[in-house]
Specification:
It contains two helices and 13 strands. The protein is mainly β and 223 residues long.
Length: 223
């Protein structure tokens, strides 16, 4: 990343609202043009531009129409409660950096060669990520898609990705929007499955009952 973020995700900046919901999941961050670079034996480089994955998503840079990525770099501590503390920015920069590429075997091809990249923060606590890395059937850097929609990077809540990663069967069914969440009258549920490096995903939308329970199935979408 090019520089510390100047909009909404770092204290002491022009718009230091890093503690508000739109910045959840990104604080404390840097923003700028972002590429993933893989170096092969012999010195050959492979490069994947990651900035386009932030286009048309809700994130601190996109909210100001900036063609940039936002990458979390420093952790938030319990002591970070005085939002207008003039020394907070210096203390944050002095902290050890967050791990930006925790590799794991999300796609169940037997190799931990993928990581989650946060690309959006929807209303409080809904953090959206895309899976990036390489797979057996596609051994070059790429954003993962499903078999059914190979041209669209699969963007899901981190809770869904976590459900897949920790599932012994390589499949998870996760509610990503609860009845009543921010007044929602619908509930959505995502089924995500990985088979030898290939992903499949389906979202089902249900009507909520008056007591905020799952009701009638309204729609099914293959992602």
């Amino acid at each position: 990343m090019a520089r510390p973020a100047e909009v909404g995700v770092f204290p002491g900046t022009e718009i230091a609202d890093w503690y508000t919901c739109p910045c959840a999941g990104f604080r404390f961050a840097e923003r700028g043009k972002l590429d993933l670079v893989r170096r092969h034996s012999g010195g050959r480089e492979e490069r994947l531009p990651l900035t386009p994955l932030f286009h048309d998503t809700e994130n601190p840079a996109g909210s100001l129409n900036l063609d940039e990525a936002v990458l979390r770099r420093w952790p938030v501590l319990k002591a970070d409660t005085v939002f207008d503390d003039p020394d907070l920015a210096n203390r944050v920069r002095a902290r050890p950096l967050e791990t930006t590429m925790p590799l794991a075997d999300f796609d169940r091809d037997g190799r931990p060669t993928e990581f989650l990249l946060r690309v959006a923060s929807e209303p409080c606590a809904h953090i959206i990520s895309v899976l990036v890395g390489i797979s057996l059937d596609r051994p070059v850097l790429h954003a993962f898609t499903t078999a059914e929609h190979p041209d669209a990077p699969l963007m899901l809540e981190e809770s869904v990705w976590a459900g897949l990663l920790h599932s012994p069967q390589g499949a998870a069914m996760i509610v990503d929007l609860q009845c009543g969440d921010h007044g929602s009258e619908e509930m959505t549920e995502v089924t995500l499955r990985a088979e030898h490096g290939v992903l499949h995903a389906t979202r089902r939308t249900y009507r909520c009952t008056d007591d905020n329970k799952r009701g009638q199935l309204l729609a099914t979408a293959v992602l």
